[in-house]
Design brief:
The chain has 221 residues and is mainly alpha-helical. The chain is built from ten helices and no strands. Helix 3 packs antiparallel against helix 9 and helix 4 packs parallel to helix 6. The longest helix has 30 residues. The chain is globular.
Length: 221
Amino acid sequence: MLYVVEILKGTIEYQGWGWNAVGISTVGAVLVSFFNAWGLWSQNKKIWDAESGEGLSVVWFAYFAGFVVVGTLYGIHIHSAMVVFTCILIGAMHVPILIGLWKFKPWSKKEKIQFVGFCVCMPAMMLFTPWPEATFLLFAVGRIYSISTQPYEMLRYKKVGVLDARLVITQITAVVFWSIYGFATKTLALMVLNPILLLISVTTLFLWFFIPRRWPQNDHP
């Protein structure tokens, strides 16, 4: 127990706690993460209730599953309890979604290879790289590709399928929060990356409203 306390005392949140950027961002990030976790759980429930993964991008969820592992390792590297906690929480919510997609949605060979790359190779690179900051930033930029596959999936097949709007809304909320934080703290990576993610997320929500929806039939083999 004392060992855990000593670890917490060494985190940037403990050392910088107060009515400042560290304190506000920590509280905000935890609240946003719980909201995002609720959106992911709603999506998971919809997949299993419908027994379908129709309209959902495997790449989107697979990449984020790998990225949160990368984020956990990065959080340990920078001694951030907040980053580690939020990544573990969001990562845990991705597990039943990916299991549901595997069970109810046929995966292409390319998607299977990408899954291994995202969930195995990315964390391995983060674990052994001598440049953790640059590696984490590289994978953070990769989220642009992963998140863009969802509106592409919707446009390609002209259907919404089982995509839950609550997930998209919680995602937009998270991106808005980190955009505000980025501009407030003048963090260049957040100032550039998050507006792009926001545009893609809003596009996805727009498509959810305007593409005809139907409750899907089982689409697993």
